[in-house]
Design a protein that fits this description.
The protein is α/β, with parallel strands linked by helices and 199 residues long. Helix 2 links the parallel strand 2 and strand 3. The longest helix has 13 residues. The radius of gyration is 17 Å and the shape is globular. The relative contact order is 0.22. The model has no long low-confidence stretch (mean pLDDT 95).
Length: 199
C-alpha cells in the first residue's frame, strides 16, 4: 500500500532525571553524555519536535544534516510542584494520590491536566507544515502517549502505551488531508531505533 504521509514519533535520549525516575516536564535538562545513539538518517532535510534542549540535542544525533523546527506545544506535561520529584518523594501526599488516580482531569499544583496537554499537543501537530511526506518528531514520553491516544488507528488510553527511548512509533496515512486534520492514521508499527534505517 502506498502512504501519503509517514510520521515517526521518537522519544529523546535519556537524561539524568529519566535514569533517576524523576518527573521531568518543562525543566530544560540536557541528555546524558556518552550515549551510543545511532545516526538514523544523514539525508533527512528536516526534523520537528519540542523546543526543550533534550529534544534538540537528540535530533542532532539522529538527524545530523536536518534543520530542526521546534514548537513549545510539543513539550512534556507541566508537572508543576511535582517537577523533579520521585514517586517515593510524593507517595504520601494526598494531592499527589488524587492526581495519579485522575491525571486527565486533575493537575499537579501549578501544572497541567492531560486534557490541557492534549489540546496543546494536537494544536502543535496541526501546525506542522504541509510540504513533506515524512515527519520525524523528537518528543517526550508523555507527548508521544498523548499523540498516540489521538492518532493511533484504534482508540486507546494514555497508559496503554509503553514509550521506550530505544524504539519509535511509525504512523502512516493514506490521505494527506486526514493527516493535516489530525485524524487517526491508517497504519501503526513500533520499530527499534537503529542506524541506517530506511527513512
Amino acid at each position: 500500500m502506498d502512504y501519503a504521509v509517514t510520521v515517526y514519533l521518537i522519544r529523546h535520549a535519556r537524561t539524568k532525571s529519566n535514569v533517576e525516575h524523576r518527573y521531568l516536564g518543562w525543566t530544560d535538562e540536557e541528555i546524558l553524555p556518552n550515549q551510543d545513539l545511532p545516526v538514523i538518517s544523514r539525508c533527512g532535510k528536516v526534523a520537528f519536535g519540542s523546543d526543550l534542549k533534550r529534544c534538540r540535542q537528540t535530533a542532532k544525533f539522529y538527524f545530523p544534516s536536518a534543520a530542526y523546527y521546534s514548537d513549545a506545544g510539543f513539550r512534556e506535561s507541566n508537572f508543576g510542584e511535582f517537577e523533579g520529584k520521585t514517586y517515593d518523594d510524593l507517595k504520601e501526599i494526598p494531592q499527589y494520590r488524587k492526581w495519579i488516580d485522575d491525571p486527565t482531569h486533575l493537575a499537579p499544583p501549578a501544572g497541567e491536566t492531560l486534557v490541557e496537554v492534549t489540546k496543546r499537543c494536537m494544536a502543535a501537530f496541526r501546525r506542522l507544515p504541509n510540504d513533506f511526506d515524512l515527519y520525524p518528531l523528537i518528543l517526550h514520553g508523555g507527548t508521544i502517549r498523548t499523540l498516540l491516544v489521538q492518532l493511533a488507528p484504534e482508540p486507546s488510553e494514555f497508559w496503554d502505551w509503553h514509550v521506550s527511548h530505544d524504539e519509535l512509533f511509525k504512523l502512516q496515512w493514506t490521505m494527506k488531508e486526514n493527516f493535516k486534520e489530525g485524524k487517526r492514521c491508517t497504519s501503526l508499527s513500533v520499530v527499534p531505533i537503529t542506524a541506517n534505517m530506511n527513512m
